[in-house]
Amino acid sequence: MVFSCAAHKLRIPCHTIIREPTQFIFSGDTLNDLSIIPVQTDFVTVLSYGILIIAFSYLLYSFISDIRSLLKYRRCSSNVSTSRLIQEIILFTNDILWKEGISHFPIYKISYYPHKKYLGAFDGKRIIVYVKNVTDVHTLTVVVLHEVRHYIQSQVEVKNYSRYERYSKTYGYVLNPLEIQCYLFALKWLDPCIEYLFSRNVIKKCA
Ligand SMILES: [Zn+2]
Fold it and tell me: Is pTM beyond 0.90 here?
């Protein structure tokens, strides 16, 4: 099973159903005085609106974050091969993995075939990076960090991770809770990881 990727697309899941209030009263005596007042808003309606607002807020937040990162790191370039760069990004996660009780780094594979949808993937055992789809240091870092979080899920959150397909069917790809977790993980560690790569002289700033 190929689960993951870091291609973010703005979309609202089509399964989100907004129900109309089910009962109304008329405050006027005739239909000419139509002050319609909903007296009952059922729980599903409130829940649907709540989910929609949370989903919209998350998508807006992720969109703004992507733009911010893109502007901030667009002038970074690599001093090393792509393979070495991926390796260094994975090495950066050493302490994170250790705190999760994981003693092995994930293995990775570079795919030189362009993928139609994904920039990277985690197949349950390996991180796969589609290098033809990844054109800059910033994106590569986000992709690898994202897939490392899937690796952690597979190692220490096994039960939840096994629900991946079910979540995808219910929430869609972008709002799959396991994907959101990976996205936020990559966002959280992007700056420290870039700093680490600078400190190791793996990447450099271009004028
Ligand atoms: Zn993913």
Answer: no
Distance 33 CA to ligand 1 centre (A): 54
| Euclidean distance between CA atoms 31 and 17, whole angstroms | 30
Query: Is the Cα dihedral 25, 27, 28, 31 positive or negative?
Result: negative
Cα(176) to ligand 1 centroid in Å equals: 9
- Distance of alpha carbon 38 from alpha carbon 21, whole angstroms: 7
Question: From the CA of 23, how far away is ligand 1's center (Å)?
Answer: 42
- For residue 65, the surrounding DSSP H or E stretch is helix 43-73
Taking only the tens place, the pLDDT of each residue in 50-86 is 878 888 887 877 777 777 777 777 778 999 999 999 9
| Cα gap 87→48, rounded to integer Å | 43
What's the pLDDT tens digit per position in 136-187?
A: 999 999 999 999 999 999 999 999 999 999 999 999 999 999 999 999 999 9
Cα 48 to ligand 1 centre (Å) = 25
Pairing of strands 23-26, 36-40: antiparallel
